[in-house]
Specification:
2 domains, globular, six-stranded parallel sheet, 31% helix, Rossmann fold, alpha/beta, six-stranded mixed sheet, 12 strands, 297 residues
């Protein structure tokens, strides 16, 4: 299998390292932004696009790779369920992939696993599901400076409030996508997804992290609650990495992962472990809810 990595950041280099230890895989790249044409036009079995979080910023890249006959996996969080962002664009690229006989998948860790794929698997022993709740506590110290600034780290209280209102501070992206994936698999219609983000402060009166709350509403009631706490120094706020799931119904279920999943290594492994399931999947733009579990091969 030939795999081209477009994007020369930490995640792509981690993926290359994982794949370099596996037989039967030829890794092309990681390619920088100025090597875009080589990466996307490589005709590799899979092109991994690991450049940004936003659907519209990767749409042309996906289109070019698909036109070259490649399956595509992207780490862009919005691409985990692109219909939640731009239904017309998602339908267009889905149709293109079907015509070309290839698959597009948005995957990673969050979204891609704890809030969607893992949650769906964890529902297996549940006779019914009334509501769900997922909480993550994540060490953000491993992210690069530009990502830290974008998600909300290193700002004064006033700057954080301004960025929150303008949208320049995003927090972690992908919660509506995960909620839509899970709701779709269970036949639940979400009416809306409500969002809150609050700063957590570190040294020097600047933000060291944030708390995000997302609520997916169905039937006028909260159906999917997501809580994300991220900080560059969790010990300073008395927290440790943790992932926890609650599934409410006639047989309540509770799962905990301690220590929590590492955002960098976890995301890279999820991509590396998604190659075969993507190549073997039906054509079109799919979600992690449409595919078998990701596993090392």
């Amino acid at each position: 299998m030939r795999v081209a990595l477009y994007g020369a950041g930490q995640v792509a280099h981690n993926i290359a390292a994982i794949l370099g230890r596996r037989s039967g895989v030829e890794v092309l790249g990681p390619f920088r932004r100025d090597e875009r044409g080589v990466a996307l036009g490589s005709g590799a079995d899979v092109v991994v696009i690991a450049t940004t979080s936003f659907l519209r910023e990767i749409a042309d890249d996906v289109r070019e790779a698909v036109d070259a006959g490649s399956n595509v996996i992207t780490t862009a969080e919005e691409a985990a369920f692109p219909w939640a962002v731009d239904q017309g664009l998602a339908d267009e690229l889905d149709a293109l992939a079907r015509r070309r006989g290839v698959t597009i998948l948005g995957a990673g860790l969050n979204p891609g696993f704890p809030f969607d794929a893992l949650l769906l698997t964890a529902m297996g022993p549940a006779p019914d599901v009334e509501s769900v709740r997922v909480e993550r506590v994540v060490d953000l110290s491993g992210f690069g400076d530009s990502v830290k600034r974008r998600i909300g780290i290193g700002w004064t209280a006033e700057e954080f409030d301004e960025g929150r209102c303008s949208g320049s501070i995003t927090g972690h992206i992908g919660f509506p996508q995960s909620m839509r994936i899970v709701a779709g698999r269970l036949g639940v219609e979400l009416e809306r997804v409500d969002r809150e983000i609050e700063p957590l402060f570190g040294t020097g009166g600047r933000t060291g992290g944030f708390v995000q709350r997302y609520t997916g509403v169905a039937g006028g009631q909260p159906w999917f609650r997501a809580l994300f706490t991220g900080h560059v120094d969790l010990a300073s706020i008395g927290r440790t990495p943790r992932d926890e799931l609650w599934i409410e119904g006639s047989v309540p279920l509770h799962y905990a992962i301690e220590p929590g999943l590492n955002p960098q290594t976890g995301a890279s492994a999820m991509i590396a472990n998604s190659l075969h399931r993507t190549v073997e999947a039906p054509a079109g733009w799919l979600t992690v809810g449409d595919l078998p579990p990701a596993t090392p091969f």
